[in-house]
Design goal:
Order of helices and strands of chain B: HHHHHEEEEEEEEEHE
Largest sheet of chain A: none
CATH topology of chain A: Butyryl-CoA Dehydrogenase, subunit A, domain 3
Distance between the termini of chain B: 55 Å
Helix content of chain A: 55-70%
CATH topology of one domain in chain B: Phosphorylase Kinase, domain 1
Structural class of chain A: mainly alpha
Number of helices of chain B: 6
Helix content of chain B: 25-40%
Shape of chain A: globular
Radius of gyration of chain A: 16 Å
Strand order of the largest sheet of chain B: 2-3-4-9-8-7
Distance between the termini of chain A: 54 Å
Strand content of chain A: under 5%
Strand content of chain B: 25-35%
Shape of chain B: globular
Order of helices and strands of chain A: HHHHHHHHHH
Oligomer: heterodimer
Number of strands of chain B: 10
Number of strands of chain A: 0
CATH architecture of one domain in chain B: 2-Layer Sandwich
Number of domains of chain A: 1
Largest interface: A-B, 41 and 37 residues
Number of helices of chain A: 10
CATH class of one domain in chain B: Alpha Beta
């Protein structure tokens, strides 16, 4: 694939990547940085991309890996359940002043509930349900088997339903 | 599950996620910045080898005259700005301190001249003394410069420019933590000076000094925190 063709095609996914970055970071400047870094890496390693495979999934994979690297989630999440998902309900990263000053607030119960999900659960829902990505592509982004993706979607929805019920009672 | 249409079903939840979650779109600044970075790399051509040979010869000759050549302007916009900011700092080192402004009286004039308002400003403390403030014009942007001096005589220049979305190079970012607060400005260098570069809302901020050694950088971090937590610049319009 020619480099300018690659760039043109990659830029078509900018809004989807930005939307995903916003739900991961909840902070516009950090989402900007994350997306910018994602494209820098994609352009730098464009020769590694195999034409004919799914560019969209590849870009989402880079973005998520970059996010995880930035926040050193792997070090923090030492206690993982059997399918690689942390078992607690805390946000994935703490808000620093720089973040909180520009942080985007959740306006609906659904947004609040989604925000409270662990990153791995939030990500499967965003990719599979919001972005409408095929399960095989979601598995590629998360670097896990399709069966794990299905299980995570199921558990993510269970937890989301529980949170929505809690909000409804309040 | 696919046949279940109750409000609690997987399908209904999926529909809610698609329909109710707001979608965020990338800003024009971000789009432009990424498109700029997408410029295709140059391909090696057949004529490259002889050209390189000629260039190597020219380079050897050029090195002889290097001290006489004008300085090259960096292509990266952030590096270019850092160079201008450092030039402004050196100008202040030579001339600025001789004409200090007292900030409470200078503020309205400064806001009018620079297009930058200060909701809160660092006016010095036991470590840093406020020296002066003045409007600046760097790389086509009006902005504001505040100068401080520490007990050892190091001059610090804090510059704010209205440049939304200025790319802050990730590789040069340094994590600075103070209590529960955390920042990730980039530490850049030019002409023997150090500069912290960060974004604050729609503004690009710089803090320059001649503190470059390892021990000095630790102190420079402390000065960054002092200025960062107490200064809140905003576009005046």
């Amino acid at each position: 694939m020619a480099s300018d063709e690659f760039s043109r095609e990659a830029l078509q996914h900018l809004d989807a990547l930005y939307n995903f970055a916003m739900y991961l970071t909840r902070n516009p400047p950090e989402a900007d940085d994350l997306v910018q870094e994602t494209y820098l890496r994609a352009f730098r390693f464009s020769h590694r991309f195999q034409p004919g495979t799914h560019l969209r999934a590849w870009l989402f994979q880079i973005l998520r890996n970059t996010f995880l690297t930035f926040y050193r989630l792997r070090e923090r999440e030492s206690a993982l359940a059997e399918d690689g998902v942390p078992t607690w309900d805390v946000p994935m990263f703490h808000d620093a002043p720089e973040e909180s000053s520009g942080a985007v607030e959740a306006h609906t119960d659904l947004e609040r509930a989604l925000q409270r999900l662990p990153e791995a659960f939030r990500t499967v829902l965003l990719l599979a349900e919001v972005e409408g990505m095929a399960l095989e592509d979601v598995a590629r982004v998360l670097a896990c088997p399709v069966g794990t993706v299905k299980s995570r979607i199921f558990r993510a929805k269970e937890r989301l339903r529980g949170l929505l019920r809690d909000y409804a009672k309040q | 599950m696919s046949g279940d249409h109750s409000p609690d079903s997987d399908e209904a939840l999926g529909t809610r996620l698609r329909a109710e979650l707001p979608r965020y779109t990338a800003s024009a600044h971000l789009r432009a910045a990424i498109a700029e970075g997408a410029a295709p790399p140059r391909r090696r051509a057949a004529w490259l080898a002889p050209v390189l040979t000629a260039a190597a010869t020219a380079l050897v000759l050029g090195l002889v005259f290097l001290p006489l050549l004008p300085r090259l302007v960096p292509a990266d916009p952030t590096e270019r700005l850092v160079r201008s900011v450092v030039a402004e700092h050196t100008r202040a080192l030579m001339w600025g301190a001789r004409h200090p402004e007292v900030i409470p009286t200078a503020l309205p004039w400064l806001t009018q001249e620079s297009g930058i308002g200060l909701r809160q400003v660092f006016v010095g403390d036991d470590r840093l003394v406020f020296v002066g403030a003045e409007p600046v014009y760097l790389e086509g942007h009006r902005g504001m410069a505040l100068h401080y001096r520490d007990g050892d005589g190091h001059l610090l220049t804090y510059i704010v420019l209205p440049i939304p979305g200025l790319p802050v190079p990730d590789r040069q970012r340094v994590q600075i933590e103070r209590g529960t607060s955390r920042w990730r400005p980039a530490l850049m260098h030019d002409s023997g000076f150090s500069a912290w570069v960060w974004r604050q809302g729609e503004l690009a901020c710089f803090l320059v000094s001649d503190m470059v050694s390892e021990a000095d950088v630790e102190r420079f971090k402390d000065y960054f925190v002092r200025v960062r937590v107490s200064t809140d610049p905003v576009p005046a319009n």
